[in-house]
Amino acid sequence: MKFRVDRDVLADAVAWAARSLPVRPSVPVLAGLLIEASHEGLVLSTFDYETSARATLQAEVADEGRALVSGRLLADICRSLPAKPVEMVIDGARVSLTCGSARFSLQTMPVEDYPTLPEMPAATGTVPSEAFAHAVSQAVTAAGRDDMLPVLTGVRLEIDGSTISLLATDRFRLSHRELGWDPRTPDDTLAALVPAKVLGDTAKSLTSGSEVTIALSTSGTGEGIIGFEGAASGGTRRTTTRLLDGEFPKVRSLFPSEHLTVARVDKQALIESVRRVSLVAERNTAVQLAFSDGVLTLDAGSGDEAQASESIEAQIDGEAITTGFNPQFLLDGLTVIDEDIVELAFTQSSKPVVISGAGDDTKGEGSKDDTSFRYLLMPRRLLS
Questions:
Q1: I need a surface site. Which of 112, 207, 210, 355 has the fewest CB within 10 A?
Q2: One-character DSSP codes across 109-143
Q3: What integer pLDDT is reported at residue 368 of this predicted model?
Q4: Nearest-CA neighbor of 228 among 42, 55, 237, 135?
Q5: Do 206 and 129 contact (CB within 8 A), yes or no?
Q6: Domains 2-113 and 125-242 share a fold
Q7: Which of 211, 162, 215 is CA-nearest to residue 186?
Q8: What Å distances lie between residue 142 and 168, 171, 336, CA to CA?
Q9: Taking a C-beta distance cutoff of 8 angstroms, is the pair 17, 44 a contact?
Q10: Domains of the chain: which residue ranges?
Q11: In this predicted model, what pLDDT tens digit does every residue of 240-257 receive, in sequence order?
């Protein structure tokens, strides 16, 4: 194996492929990054039996071959190289890397022990890359992080014709995001439970090209894989991951069909007020929100401890209401909403609030656009 490649292209591809390497691999070769050189170019791959990453890039290949080296070490080296072409050559059981006057010699791992990467399923459809990355970043906000409840660490991806729905919950909050896409089969109705971290990292990393191809293969609950592919500098990037096992809770019904109180508030003013008031809130205590007479009053702290109170303007339709929320969960939802004005819709103080961006009133009630995002948050006092 012998090839020559642009330093920036190589460093970017290596960093991308190495980002999903396991911190504590079950077997040593899973810490490796597989380099495959052919006259078609380079392929860089990583795989931990759950998630695979595959980057293709253009290179001047003199001799074809394969080598397996430490992925994290190679990423660190490539990041530090001078801005000159990189040459890599297999030299016995080592790989020699030269860039300008910098030279490195890396120990190889047994390439024959490396697992075969899963095939990319047949393409299900395509979605604009920036829109997909943004929608995923909103949806994963509510995903669980407790590995004892693995089903809740995923995002349920539902495909219904030309619409993708993303749902996530950690039991205390729920996110729902919809966006349009271009399906290969217009009448397809599919669903998958995708690990939230993999989905978030992948969507964010595939914005170089104009669109992302989604490929979904399901053969029953917890079986099958999902793949994502997009263009990148000098080639393509592809990720596959196994779907999570288990039944995602039926959460759509948690969104109420009617509300008794609806408040509209300037998003940035609310975010800044919550951040200030919550400074005196003890761990696991709520920030109180009282809506009345065109004013939202926030309070935190109690008794002999530090206390804080602040009021901001609010447009309130319906009955006055007082409730309380985990301040960080409230901020998580507010900060991913695009609109400058947020709408908080309540049924009663002991029930969840539905937070969304206040849309354009000229669209009419019930209208939907491509940025529909809803965030449902349980009152803090119900979290026992």
A1: 112
A2: B-GGGSPPPPPPPPP-EEEEHHHHHHHHHHHGGG-
A3: 40
A4: 237
A5: yes
A6: yes
A7: 162
A8: 5, 9, 11
A9: yes
A10: 2-113, 125-242, 255-382
A11: 999 999 999 999 999 998
Q: What tens digit of pLDDT does each residue of 54-66 get?
A: 999 999 999 999 9
Q: Does domain 255-382 have CATH number 3.10.150.10?
A: yes
Residue 195's φ and ψ, nearest 5 degrees, are -55, 125
Q: pLDDT per residue over 305-345, tens digit each? A: 889 999 999 999 999 999 999 999 999 999 999 999 999 99
The kind and range of the H/E element at 193 are strand 189-195
Class of domain 125-242: alpha beta
Is residue 237 within a helix (H) or strand (E), and if so which, with residue range?
strand 235-242
Is the confidence at residue 91, as pLDDT, over 90?
no
**Is 2-113 a CATH 3.40.50.300 domain?**
no
Q: What is the pTM of this model?
A: 0.90
CB 281 within 8 A of CB 327: yes
Here the tokens at position 337 are 């909403």
DSSP-assigned states of every residue in 35-95: EEEETTEEEEEEE-SSEEEEEEE--EEEE-EEEEEEHHHHHHHHHHS-SS-EEEEEETTEE
Q: Which helix (H) or strand (E) holds 10?
A: helix 7-18
Write the pLDDT tens digit of every residue in 128-169.
Answer: 999 999 999 999 999 999 999 999 999 999 999 999 999 999
Burial class of residue 254, CB neighbours in 10 A (0-12, 13-18, 19+): middle
